[in-house]
Design a protein that fits this description.
His_deacetylse_dom, HDAC_classIV, 10 helices, 300 residues, hydrolase activity, Arginase, Chain A, alpha/beta
């Protein structure tokens, strides 16, 4: 059975001026239930992640400052969010959503989180709407417990997964692959194990061609036990922060390529949604919903 992490706190703690990009966390589950792609049984509500599991990835001093709301003004501005206890609880709950999705993936072949993909969070700081790094936390959780020996992180958000690259730069058991807008945020790119920077305006054909060249090779050469997929939809042409030109169909074909490849290799796949900032809310929800529709179609 497809299991999807979602909790009411995913959607609520931000002031009105920050909420537009977050509305998708409310609308996406409603759409999946309305159209019959998912039932209530597909969703589970994670608890906040225990501190010990968080500290497998993040610096204790940073976590203390974050938890006690003691970030400096500069540090807070870099996250993009006004800091609050509600926001921190939301983030810690999202972290466990991806951890639990990873455990479900080991059982069912795929596990998903309506939120997550917080790839701009570093070991010791947050940036770009990311306070903690869920894929890194879940990957370290599996490694720490011997549930995986080799992990591949496929990051197809339009922005480079700079925090993820930094966290795993000295960890040979985790291979980081980021395909992103070359001139987009962040200005300073970290070094992933494989980075593909795309020029502004890259459309469906070239994007899918590059992905089809790289992903099968990585699955063979890296030989992972588990794949984490950051499937941000800010690659869409309508995205206000993206600068690429993928259509809704092209984004769907991207997801299909990743999901079908992992299914064919019998690799557990963990999906977190990542970014999406289109001015057309329908495009955000529809593009994310396609990922869940494909999961049901391919894995079940």
């Amino acid at each position: 059975m497809l299991k999807i992490a979602w909790a009411p706190c995913y959607a609520h703690p931000l002031p009105a001026g920050h909420r537009f990009p977050m509305i998708k966390y409310e609308l996406l589950p409603e759409q999946l239930l309305y159209e019959g792609t998912c039932s209530a049984d597909n969703f589970f509500e994670p608890e906040p992640l225990p501190e010990a599991d968080l500290l497998l990835t993040h610096d204790p001093l940073y976590w203390q400052k974050l938890n006690l709301l003691q970030l400096s003004r500069s540090e807070e501005r870099k996250t993009g969010f006004p800091l609050s206890h509600e926001l921190v609880r939301r983030e810690v709950t999202i972290m466990n959503g991806t951890v639990q999705a990873a455990l479900y993936a080991l059982q069912w072949g795929i596990g998903m989180n309506v939120a997550g993909g917080t790839h701009h969070a570093f070991t010791d700081r947050g940036e770009g709407f990311c306070l903690l790094n869920d894929n890194a936390i879940a990957a370290n959780y599996l490694l720490d417990r011997g549930l995986a020996q080799k992990i591949l992180i496929v990051d197809l958000d339009v922005h480079q997964g700079n925090g993820t690259a930094q966290i795993f730069r000295h960890e040979p058991r985790v291979f980081t692959f980021s395909m992103h807008g070359e001139k987009n945020y962040p200005l300073h790119k970290e070094q992933s194990d494989l980075d593909i920077g795309l020029p502004d305006g890259t459309g469906d054909a070239r994007y899918l061609e590059l992905l089809a060249q790289q992903l099968p090779r990585l699955l063979e050469e890296v030989a992972p036990d588990v794949v984490f997929y950051q499937c941000g939809v800010d690659v869409l042409a309508s995205d206000t922060l993206g600068r690429l030109k993928l259509s809704l169909q092209g984004c769907r074909e991207r997801d299909a390529l990743v999901l079908r490849s992992c299914h064919a290799h019998k690799l557990p796949l963990v999906c977190s949604m990542g970014g999406g900032y289109s001015s057309k809310l329908f495009h955000i929800v529809e593009a994310h919903a396609n990922t869940f529709r494909l999961a049901q179609e391919i894995f079940f």
